[in-house]
């Protein structure tokens, strides 16, 4: 049956936030294709996840050139879904991709040179069968390339029409200020910064979030569920289909410690009293920050996606709840 999106996909109150001081609004939950959209993964499941995401009002799909495995496979997967199903609704979608981490051999396959970024963007557009992406990111700060060159490449991507907005990811606060100033001078203000942020990883609170507020840049945070540690996924051990069980490159079984599970159980009890799952509360917790526009989640099945999207129903916290969460995190 041909895919037709839900007519109620935009009916969830408060589901979209303005990104920084820009005119674009993003859904508070975005779908990242970092995992589960590569060659080893089931294409029917990938398609079902993307369909359901759009049905729920998730219009932002986040990729990078090297997402897979192998590198580039996630962009190819999305390209097929756009060709077969979602292409008619392209103007309702925000599609982002990045370049900066290792993608191909030789001196131009990573980091932040103009050659590397613009060549990578052309490759990404071919894989996704797109004329443009909505956001193109420098995926990481390159200490050996002049920042003027890296930001100039992002600005060129926008001027050429191959990207609508420029973004940066994994940049420290000081380099974020410099990058933002350069992009403003080039007439392509920085729309968004993509840092890692969760209850278990709070480095961005040491200056970056304040910097983004002052600069008028939105934050699209990744790993808000700490690679699954802020869910009930590991309460009964490590499932065979969990990330720590089947793909330990990013979460090893050794990281699923008794202390981590005990802390997650304490947080889960708080979430249940709020009427939420632990994952939903963890998402609401990062979204409580004024600088945070959207939380990027991954999903290996539709039910995970649906649970995360439901976080938007309850985003506020009482002071007592935040204090209780802090106590659990310190335990």
Query: Main sheet: which strands, in order across?
Result: 3-4-5-6-7-8-9-10
Query: Could you name the CATH topology?
Result: TIM Barrel
The portion of residues assigned to helices is 25-40%
The H/E string reads: EEEHEHEHEHEHEHEHHHEHH
User: What's the structural domain tally?
Assistant: 1
What this model shows, in words?
This protein has 331 residues and is α/β, with parallel strands linked by helices. It has one domain: TIM Barrel, CATH 3.20.20.100. It is 38% helix and 15% strand. The chain has helices spanning 43-55, 73-86, 114-128, 147-159, 173-185, 208-215, 243-246, 258-274, 278-287, 302-309, 319-330; strands spanning 16-18, 25-27, 29-32, 60-62, 94-99, 133-138, 163-169, 190-194, 218-222, 292-297. The strands form 2 sheets. An 8-stranded parallel barrel has the order 3-4-5-6-7-8-9-10, surrounded by 6 helices. The chain has a two-stranded antiparallel ribbon with strand order 1-2. Strand 5, helix 3 (114-128) and strand 6 (133-138) form a beta-alpha-beta unit. Helix 1 packs parallel to helix 10. The radius of gyration is 19 Å and the shape is globular. The relative contact order is 0.13. The mean pLDDT is 95.
How would you concisely characterize the structure shown here?
By secondary structure, the protein is α/β, with parallel strands linked by helices. Helix content is 38%, strand content 15%.
Give the helix/strand layout.
Layout lengths: L15 E3 L6 E3 L1 E4 L10 H13 L4 E3 L10 H14 L7 E6 L14 H15 L4 E6 L8 H13 L3 E7 L3 H13 L4 E5 L13 H8 L2 E5 L20 H4 L11 H17 L3 H10 L4 E6 L4 H8 L9 H12 L1
Parallel strand pairs: 3-4, 3-10, 4-5, 5-6, 6-7, 7-8, 8-9, 9-10
Antiparallel strand pairs: 1-2
Helix pairs in contact: 1-2, 1-10, 3-4, 4-5, 5-6, 8-11
